[in-house]
Amino acid sequence: MDERTFDRSGQHASVVGLGTWQLGADWGDVDDKEALAVLEAAAEAGVTFFDTADVYGDGRSEQTIAAFLSGRPDLHVLVATKMGRRVDQIPENYVLDNFRAWNDRSRRNLGVDRIDLVQLHCPPTPVYSTDEVFDALDTLVEEERVAAYGVSVETCAEALTAIARPNVASVQIILNPFRMKPLREVLPAAREAGVGVIARVPLASGLLSGKYTRDTVFPQNDHRTYNRHGESFDVGETFSGVDYATGVEAAADFAALAPEGYTPAQLALRWIIDQPGVTTVIPGARSPEQARANAAAARLPELSGETRAAIRDLYDRRIKDQVESRW
Length: 327
Hints:
The protein is of the alpha/beta class. The strands form two sheets. The protein has an eight-stranded parallel sheet with strand order 3-4-5-6-7-8-9-10. Strands 1-2 form a two-stranded antiparallel sheet. Helix 5 runs parallel beside helix 6 and helix 8 packs antiparallel against helix 11. The longest helix has 19 residues.
């Protein structure tokens, strides 16, 4: 699989990575055997970038990745984790002592002395404008606790503030055919600055796979049930912030745009891969089959101008007014 570079850090990632939120929690139950099988399938399909967080299953996702990689010393996988969501979301918690403690825990979970890439995990907005926060992150690099650092953001404004920081290696942001706003400013700014872009929630929590209907029932421990209106965290993380009924209808229209040989999910992933400035896209997977199908999107041809225009038209007609003012 093709790899792209985080220019500021010199690190490389496969254009399709693997998001591992679902291997920890919040997407229904995934047992350890299934989780390891997903990681194996992704790696065998050429994925060289795993994204996790200390809060996913309270460390379970990190530990699962460590268990997998310990048995595969032949693999060269860039592992990115995130920190900051295990405490009250107030700016005062984003200080060096906490960073060290969080980092110690993640390094233990991952079984490494130095983490490849650590990201602030959608912190409070004022954190992005606080010099001391980025001085503390620089200290983690100086202490060889992390090789590089980045941020995971909710809004385009937060992304632009972070990109202006000289040592931010990456910005992780929601980008998919139902969340196009980052195309206007964030991707061009990141490309100009040499900041990598990690595109998350690429399938709008599965909506863009075309598998769901108005009658679909998700498990009670799935955020698509309990966070549908932002009850537990930013509603933009669930179905990209799109009203479910609207999203299901628009997803059916989206699926109809898939060229021959593409599944709807692969169409969404290929659309993201084709955007200038994207370094890697990180779909999750609950089965080896899903992991392999996601990775296969990297081998499909670029989309035609006609298909891209049809996707844009669908967004403008059905989705744009719901999401652009919020994120």
